[in-house]
Specification:
Strand order of the largest sheet: 1-2
Largest sheet: 2 strands, antiparallel
Distance between the termini: 85 Å
Shape: globular
Number of helices: 6
Radius of gyration: 20 Å
Order of helices and strands: HHHHHEEH
Strand content: 5-15%
């Protein structure tokens, strides 16, 4: 009976879904990500099944199927996720193995010996500690590149 009602209401489709709390999506750190990084984040998150955070991957063999034009674009998007604290590498890739990731919005799961990252009891949410900076306020110890004209002016 439930299936008949669902069919009548147009809700018969079944499958997994991704629920993201609104505070993640509304966070400045999420909105500052490039569209390609957001796409990679969503594609990794769509693989999460509750016990496999740490085994998430976007392998080269799936590039075209997932809508990526080049490996370099995907690699840059994944590097942005890691740099901004939305993901961590749990196992570096190799010649015949994809790089595995865990998203920091969930605890890293113990997946046997399939990745090298220790399991965690809670999500690290490393992305909350990431701060973007403008050219007027670089992080301590970071040098803002100068144009050749400015470098010459300061040298004189």
């Amino acid at each position: 009976m439930a299936d008949r009602r669902a069919k009548k209401k147009g809700r018969l489709e079944r499958g997994s879904f991704l629920a993201l709390p609104h505070d993640y999506i509304r966070a400045a750190q999420f909105n500052e990500m490039s569209p390609k990084a957001v796409k990679a984040f969503l594609q990794l998150a769509a693989q999460y099944r509750g016990t496999n955070n740490g085994l998430l991957a976007l392998p080269r063999s799936q590039l075209k199927k997932l809508g990526w034009a080049s490996h370099h674009t995907l690699r840059a998007a994944l590097a942005e996720l890691v740099d901004t604290g939305w993901a961590v590498v749990t196992r570096p890739g190799g010649k015949h193995a994809a790089t595995l990731y865990a998203l920091t919005i969930w605890a890293v799961d113990d997946c046997g010996m399939r990745h090298q990252h220790p399991a965690t009891a809670t999500a690290s949410n490393d992305w909350r500690n990431h701060k973007r900076w403008g050219s007027d306020c670089p992080p301590q110890g970071h040098q803002v590149p100068q144009s050749p004209t400015e470098a010459h002016r300061h040298a004189a």
